[in-house]
Write a structure and sequence with these properties.
two-stranded antiparallel ribbon, disordered N terminus
C-alpha cells in the first residue's frame, strides 16, 4: 500500500491505505473508501471502487506525501505524517492525561462524546474546564490542534 500522491488538478491519487485514505479524482477532488477510522498501515490496501468515495470523519484518513516544517519551532515533519478526519473521537478517562496537559484541574470536566468537530470540541473542553484554548504558555502552544493544524502531539 502507498500513501496518496499528487495527480491531475491537485487531486490526491494512489492506493489508499487502511483507515480510508482518499484516492485521486480529477479537478482537486478527494476520493477514497469510507471507514470508521483506525490507524493506516502498510498492508490491507483499500481502494475506491466507485469514485467519488468519502473519507472517514473520525480517525486516520491519509498520510502526507511531502515533508514540512513548523517555522516557529523549527520542527520538521516527515513524509508519512497521519492526516486525521475533522471530528474528535471524544474524551473519556482514557484521555485524562491529555485533558490534564490542556489545563483541566479535574479531567472529567472535559469529557465529551465523539463526533464533534475538533475546533468545537476544543472550545467545549475549554469552557467546561474554565481554561482558554488554544493558548501560549511561554514558548509552548497548548491546544487540541497544533499551530499547523495537526491533531496529535508530534515528538
Amino acid at each position: 500500500g502507498g500513501a496518496p500522491t499528487g495527480g491531475a488538478g491537485g487531486a490526491l491519487t494512489g492506493a489508499a491505505t487502511t483507515g480510508g485514505a482518499p484516492t485521486g479524482g480529477a479537478g482537486g477532488a478527494l476520493t477514497g473508501a469510507a471507514t470508521t477510522g483506525g490507524a493506516p498501515t502498510g498492508g490491507g490496501v483499500q481502494t475506491c471502487d466507485n469514485p467519488p468515495c468519502a473519507a472517514s470523519l473520525l480517525g486516520d484518513v491519509a498520510f502526507t506525501t511531502v515533508a514540512g516544517k513548523d517555522e516557529r519551532k523549527g520542527t520538521v515533519f516527515s513524509e508519512g505524517e497521519n492526516i486525521y478526519g475533522p471530528f474528535e473521537n471524544g474524551f473519556t478517562s482514557t484521555q485524562d492525561m491529555i485533558l490534564t496537559r490542556l489545563g483541566c484541574q479535574n479531567p472529567s470536566d472535559g469529557y465529551l462524546s465523539g463526533g464533534i468537530d475538533t475546533t468545537t470540541a476544543e472550545q467545549m473542553v475549554a469552557a467546561a474546564c474554565g481554561i482558554t484554548l488554544p493558548r501560549y504558555e511561554g514558548e509552548a502552544y497548548i491546544g487540541l490542534l497544533d499551530e499547523c493544524g495537526g491533531h496529535t502531539v508530534h515528538r
